[in-house]
Amino acid sequence: MRVPADRRAKEGGFTLIESLVALALMGLVLSALANLTAQWLPNWNRGLDRIQRSEMIGITLQRIADDLAAAQYVPASGSDSQPLFAGSEQSVTFVRTAIGPNAGIGLDVVHLSETTDPGGLVTVRSRTPFHPLPPESASSQLHFGEPVLLLRAPYRLSFAYAGEDQQWQNSWRDSEKLPAKVRLTVRDASNARAISTVASIHVQSLAQGDCKQGDGKCDGNAGTPAASQGGAQQGNSSGTSQQTGAGAGQGGSP
């Protein structure tokens, strides 16, 4: 059955030329969007990667700062009067309370330094349990293990140290006190950018009256021997008893 010509004329639709033009315009729009996405997506990825690296560096610096803040005034051996603390521009060694899932009660010697692996330069944290060492070559008796990766190239970590005078220096060795502050600086070798923070060490020296010697044989400047301290305590106890007895007598009088 044939459809009348006037009825076919009233039906809507596109001609072949109109369809081809619409397809061409749609291709141009999609091509423009693809070019825009190709230019915008790498920048987005670089920005996201930069944010992730900054967060990683911030977490690492905070962890190292907390580590240094817990440094303890502990001599390497009973005959030493100086704390076990050796700091340079690229490494630092100190004693702190042991931490970790399997750590017991005790002290650790912590070593933060830069080393190499198949991927290049890395900054690692290693540790060893603390034990009193012989006075001769105490540092050579330390054998560190359990390395933990902190930073990888192109990032490099450097240290600076300051005492109570707030004067920064690149090393801290053979001192009677621990540094008051340690500045941590992470530099990006690829673009020379730097991020830094300052860690405050809670303990710089022994409290007055503490003994630096492991056997308790301290002189008058370093501390008081245990026997003298016990005699002083007994004397104080006697004085307290006398005062108590006098007070009781006074209380019993009318």
Structural overview:
The protein is α+β, with helices and mostly antiparallel strands and 254 residues long. The chain has a domain of 147 residues. The protein contains 3 helices and 9 strands; from the N terminus they run ααβββββββββα. The strands form 2 sheets. The chain has a 5-stranded antiparallel sheet, covered by helices on one side. Strands 7-6-8-9 form a 4-stranded antiparallel sheet, with helices on one face. It is elongated.
Q: Largest beta sheet, briefly?
A: 5 strands, antiparallel
H/E element order: HHEEEEEEEEEH
Strand line-up of the largest beta sheet: 1-2-3-4-5
Q: What's the pLDDT, averaged over the residues?
A: 77
Distance between the termini: 139 Å
Tally the beta strands.
Answer: 9
Dominant shape: elongated
Task: Note poorly predicted spans.
Answer: 212-254
Number of H/I helices: 3
Rg on CA atoms, Å: 36 Å
Strand content: 15-25%
Q: Please bin the fraction of helical residues.
A: 25-40%
Classify the secondary structure makeup into a structural class: alpha+beta
Write the layout of secondary structure elements.
Layout: H1 5-10, H2 16-69, E1 86-87, E2 92-97, E3 107-117, E4 120-129, E5 145-152, E6 155-162, E7 168-169, E8 181-188, E9 194-200, H3 226-252
Antiparallel strand pairs: 1-2, 2-3, 3-4, 4-5, 6-7, 6-8, 8-9
Task: Describe the structure using short key phrases.
single chain; 254 residues; alpha+beta; 5-stranded antiparallel β-sheet; 3 helices; disordered C terminus
In short:
By secondary structure, the protein is α+β, with helices and mostly antiparallel strands. The chain has helices at 5-10, 16-69, 226-252, and strands at residues 86-87, 92-97, 107-117, 120-129, 145-152, 155-162, 168-169, 181-188, 194-200.
